[in-house]
Amino acid sequence: MAEGAGKYDYEATMVRLSTKAVGVMVIVFGGDRGHGFSMQSDNPKFLKAVPDILRSMADQIEQDMKNMS
Question: Is residue 30, in this structure, part of any structural domain at all?
């Protein structure tokens, strides 16, 4: 697991604060600092849920791609 600030930690902080979220994940493709991600939460339940959240997102993306064919 990545610890500490990610490449896009500032942007993740802005999203978390502006949305008053418990946690955020920011994934950037081809940004000004290259590909990267930042994730923030002080709630252990959110952090434990991240793998399931990402699996669900991947499943949804795969299904959407199949539907586009």
Answer: yes
Mapped onto helix, strand or coil, the DSSP state of residue 26 is strand
Rounded to the nearest angstrom, the gap between the alpha carbon of residue 65 and the centroid of all alpha carbons in its chain is: 20
Q: What are phi and psi of 6, to 5 degrees?
A: -95, 180
Q: How confident is the model at residue 2 (pLDDT cuts 50, 70, 90)?
A: low
Among residues 28, 3, 1, the alpha carbon closest in space to that of 11 is found at: 28
- Report residue 56 as tokens: 């669900």
Q: Over the stretch 22-59, which tens digit does the pLDDT of each residue have?
A: 999 999 999 999 999 999 998 999 889 999 999 999 99
Please tell me the total count of domains within the chain: 1
